[in-house]
Amino acid sequence: MSQPSCPDFSITHAQGHASGVTVFMLHGAFGAKEYWRAQIQALAHAGHRVVAWDAPGYGLSALPADFSIDYCAQALAELLRREGGTCNVVMGHSMGGMIAQKAWAYAPQRIHGYVLSATSAAFGKSDGDWQKEFVRQRVAPLDAGRTLPEHAPGMLRTMMAAGAEGPAVDLLIATVSLMREETFRAAVAAIATYEGRALLPTMQVPVLCVAGELDRTAPAEVMAKMAAKLPQAQFVALPGVGHFGWAEQPDTFNKLLLQFLSHHFPSRSAA
Length: 271
Fold this sequence. Notes:
Elements: E1 8-12, E2 21-26, H1 37-45, E3 49-54, H2 69-83, E4 87-93, H3 95-103, E5 113-117, H4 129-143, H5 148-158, H6 167-177, H7 181-191, E6 207-212, H8 220-228, E7 233-238, H9 245-248, H10 250-264
Parallel strand pairs: 2-3, 2-4, 4-5, 5-6, 6-7
Antiparallel strand pairs: 1-3
């Protein structure tokens, strides 16, 4: 495996700079750092510092030949070393949550808390019926000649609650529609081989696990089982949302996020 390089990222400076809470934001397989707008605004308004990345292969960075969850986790560990403050909380959605968990193997001393959104500690057997159907549904339209801008809106809608709407939903769809197809395919393949359950009992930091009640991609019951294996986890299932709770109900999600930070890191959170 090649040595991961530090990914593209942006920093929102807020009160206290690196002496308060720095929140590292990791998008999912379908996305980029731009879709976190509502969360970045809420965190910055509360006085936190935000580091939002484009994972390796996303944004302007070239797709690594050996792209994997592990590769990205090593890149995150490097980013934590370069940009981390005195208190770092890693927030990952879906694939980003897998990367966040795996980074514990490489930089546990630099991670003081987690927010895990609609994710899992393992994908399961890559040759299982559910897993094969997951991959097929996402890449078959591309194999048939559809472009990602044609495929992404409908695919994303099937992952949300019926009737989900609003600026954050529109931004999500627009962001994913701009992805490169090679990155989309590599990310789907990477998810299908992830296994990280052995890490869970070792993650001795506060963790907020947020699931969507209607999510069929990372079902709430699966996240609840994952949370039960984490030593300091709080599990919340958001009612009436699917896989993208932070976009479908951003105000509710942001309230949970800020409450978690103020409860577990009160001396480092803004008043």
